[in-house]
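As a warm-up, study this chain.
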Amino acid sequence: MKKGRNELLADEEKILASYAVSSRNSGARAYNEPEHPYRLPFQRDKDRIIHSHAFKRLEYKTQVFVYSEGDHFRNRLTHTLEVAGISKTISKVLGLNEDLSETIALAHDLGHSPFGHAGQEALAELMKDKGGFEHNKQSLRVVQKLERRYPDFPGLNLCEETLLGIMKHGGGYESTHLLEIRRSYGPSLEALVVDVSDEITYSAHDIEDGLESGLLMLDDVKHLSIWKRIEDSLPNSEKKSDLNSHSISRSIGRVLLNLMVSDLVDTIDLSLSKHKIVSRESIANAYQNKIKLVHFSEEFQKEFSGLKQYLFQNLYRHPEVSRMSERGKETIYLLFKHFESHPESIPESYRKREEEDGRMRIICDYIAGMTDRYAIEKLKREGILWFPY
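Now compare it with the structure written out below.
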């Protein structure tokens, strides 16, 4: 027998923990819409994100390696899907709202520029003293304003709790009703889980991709303090010293992922019990008292910090990655300066917002939404300057 909205809400509340965000408390949408008869609010939000143009473009945006380096390295889309999967798993175990965590995860990188963090650095520099640029803030801008799928309102008209989850602590957000709620109540546990799942995901898959690319060496990884945990969890067939990094890189990534998720779940469970978290209000109290609820165990955090430092020094700063990053930055600088002088090259859909947002902001929006390959093609089509990637 088909279940209606009220039955689905009741089913959800039977499995959610008392501190989870229920669909009944999803928060209002900025523009009134009738509720769907059998899709709950966060499910609708998730579908809106997946069908957005910004989400589709993530496939051709850099994670660490630009798209031309190979078909099997992570890109911004595969990273996003992995974050969503891990967030959903953790939320399910802890009795949180899986739909909300998954939705926040799917939206968390919508505002990311092309060419990874190098692209963000370039846009931040170009927009300095002009309102700035930060990809988390841009993600919120994408879902609230830039996406144009509905005739009756700008953006995707997502639920308040989804928007609050996309916002990151410390971001330079405009003073709005949404920001006041964020400051008063802090993030939901679902949002906090997504934040840490993001770190977990890129650490595990960057080790894997780094080893497969040959930029990282297994002998170096073996010197990390976290290696003992990894080695103990590896299949016996892959503990032989004569195996090279290519043959076990995927096992290392998989084992590392499981270790991080398991430690995080156990530690969150203890933290919620220790601080007597029983409701959304108790989460808000913890936030106001600067109590961290979502974190690794102390020992594991030290090892995880060592892993991140290793990746920073040996992968993200690797000469080959730096070379790709510098080309990405140069591409963005050239495009930005070109559009400043030749606004007619900017699509009309952006130009019509110039009076409202200013030329610098619409140029920033346009470039931030580009994929790596579109930015490179745009250089060629505009006859600016081009160098092979």
